[in-house]
């Protein structure tokens, strides 16, 4: 005999997951606003700009904005990758350390 499904528990789990996804989305949108510098705008200015974008039907404008977004994220990911490589190759030497992490030959 099969065990009966607990629909209430499954529904609660789905609601919890949906709440978690919504929270993550809100957090990521906030991070995006900060990363783009849009946090320097007033709330009214930012809301107005977003409403104007959402109402835009001009495909050319939407495509241009999408390209700028791709460029923004590409530039950020390259910058992050370069910073990671710099940290791996040559972290700043600690005071009193006679060996340079980048050169490895002991001369500074």
Question: How would you characterize the overall build of this protein?
Answer:
It is built from three helices and no strands. The chain is an all-alpha fold. The longest helix has 31 residues. The protein is extended. The C terminus is likely disordered.
Keywords for this entry:
108 residues, mainly alpha, 2 domains, 0% strand, extended, disordered C terminus
In short:
This protein is an all-alpha fold and 108 residues long. The chain contains three helices and no strands.
- How many domains in all? 2
Radius of gyration: 24 Å
What fraction of residues sit in β-strands?
under 5%
How widely separated are the two ends?
A: 76 Å
Largest sheet, in brief, is: none
Total DSSP E strands: 0
Shape: extended
**Uncertain regions spanning at least 5 consecutive residues:** 93-108
Put simply, the count of helices is: 3
Helix content: 55-70%
Secondary-structure element string: HHH
Which structural category fits the helices and strands? mainly alpha
Mean pLDDT across all residues, rounded?
Answer: 83
Give the helix/strand layout:
Elements: H1 7-36, H2 43-55, H3 59-89
């Amino acid at each position: 005999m099969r065990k009966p499904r607990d629909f209430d528990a499954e529904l609660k789990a789905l609601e919890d997951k949906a709440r978690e996804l919504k929270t993550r989305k809100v957090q990521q949108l906030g991070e995006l606003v900060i990363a783009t510098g849009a946090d320097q705008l007033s709330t009214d200015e930012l809301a107005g700009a977003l409403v104007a974008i959402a109402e835009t039907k001009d495909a050319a404008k939407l495509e241009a904005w999408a390209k700028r977004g791709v460029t923004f994220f590409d530039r950020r990911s390259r910058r992050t990758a370069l910073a990671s490589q710099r940290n791996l190759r040559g972290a700043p030497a600690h005071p009193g350390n006679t060996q340079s992490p980048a050169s490895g030959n002991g001369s500074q």
